[in-house]
Amino acid sequence: MKRALLLVTAFELMFTVGCFAVGVGYGVRAMGMGGTGIATANDITAAYFNPAGLMYGPENFELQTFAGGTAGQIQALADAASDPDYLSKHFDENLNLSANMNAGLGFSVRKVGISLLAKGSGSFVHPASSILSGQVLAEAIAMAPLTLGSTFSTPGLPIASMSVGVNLNSIQIYGGGVKVTGLGTGTRYQSIGSGFGFDIGMQTKITPLISLGAVVRNLSASYTTKTKSQGVTVAADGTLTDVGAETEVKSSDTLAPETGIGVGFSLPIIGTLIAVDEENYSVAGDKSYTDTHIGLEQGLFFNAVMLRAGYFTDGPTEDTFYTYGLGLKMGPADIGFAAANSVNDSTNSLASAQVGVAF
After folding, report:
1. What is the mean pLDDT of the chain?
2. How far apart are CA 33 and CA 323, in angstroms?
3. How many domains does the chain have?
4. Which bin fits 306, alpha (ψ -120 to 50), beta or left (φ > 0)?
5. Fewer Cβ in 10 A, N or C end of the chain?
6. Is residue 1 part of a domain?
7. In the chain, which ranges are continuous DSSP H helix?
8. Is 42 inside any structural domain?
9. Where are the extended beta strands (E) located within 90-239?
């Protein structure tokens, strides 16, 4: 019973898939500021928030990488995967562990950006007192946007400037895992998909202190997936044995569109940046939800140190989060850290880190 339904092979699959996507949206600055960025993101993270924002970014070159996720749940999944006695210790409990991770790597040259944005999740479900039943699943989605745009003046209009931007998105989908229905029998799955889509955004400077933004993501975003499945038997030590023929199903699907608007305002003299975003997401069943994001950023010591704080709602989990972050700039290099604390469940709290260089 030491390894009953530990599904060692399935956990290996989960981390093989999930580690490809190794926290609110993308980017440490935005995460510290409550997930805001539609009107204020002006670095390579604008590839996610609003591609038009990159047009207000570094003039020559920028390179940035960041990663984060649900720290508590990631640790719980790692414990389950590495401890042979994990199930024995928690045999009488319902186990439902689900971790989320995201990461980004991107660079821009003269305001043309290339990025890799990835999200991954892994889950481990085991009913209480069940000897051989449950599931281990993982999935990841990666996008590689090419960000293009332009900034122009607007004679005759009461705004300082306007930028427009577009992402040309390559989409990759990965998934896999094992579902066990009882008596040591189940099914192993593996999915790979690819597709293409667009994002389009606008950002405008009403004055040097006030900015507005709007974005539509996943325009005409579709992908084709091949899913392979095969029956398996599960031994008490977690070993999987293939049984039956492998089948393959091909399917086509779309990514639900996302829309958002945002505003940013810098207070005169003290320079505090206040940002507010409203984002709408579609979900299965023709439903949708709207999240609110509020953030603050204050520079100290000639902006060598940036303090950040914020708040946001999360529709799918019906949760709210309070965020905080720290940025340090040392010449052309900068590093940042951020966290988002869940009000309802501390294991869903997020942590993220970033390092970059720009000039």
Report:
1. 85
2. 7
3. 1
4. beta
5. C
6. no
7. 8-18, 28-32, 46-49, 71-82, 86-89
8. yes
9. 95-109, 112-126, 134-152, 161-182, 185-207, 210-234
CATH number, domain with residue 127:
2.40.160.60
Q: Are strands 210-234 and 305-314 parallel, antiparallel or unpaired?
A: unpaired
Q: What is the mean pLDDT of residues 252-275?
A: 95
Beta-bridge mates of residue 146: 114, 168
Q: What is the pLDDT of residues 286-296, one digit of tens each?
A: 678 899 999 99
Could you please report the per-residue DSSP string of 167-179? EEEEEEEEEEEEE
In a domain, 2, yes or no: no
Q: Where are the alpha helices (DSSP H) in 5-107?
A: 8-18, 28-32, 46-49, 71-82, 86-89
Q: How many CB atoms lie within 10 A of CB 81?
A: 19
pTM of the model: 0.87
Those residues with Cβ within 8 angstroms of residue 331's Cβ, 6 or more apart along the chain or in another chain:
none
193, part of any domain: yes
Domain that holds residue 185: 8-358
Interatomic CA distance for residues 297 and 57, integer angstroms:
17
Phi, psi of 309 (to 5 degrees): -155, 160
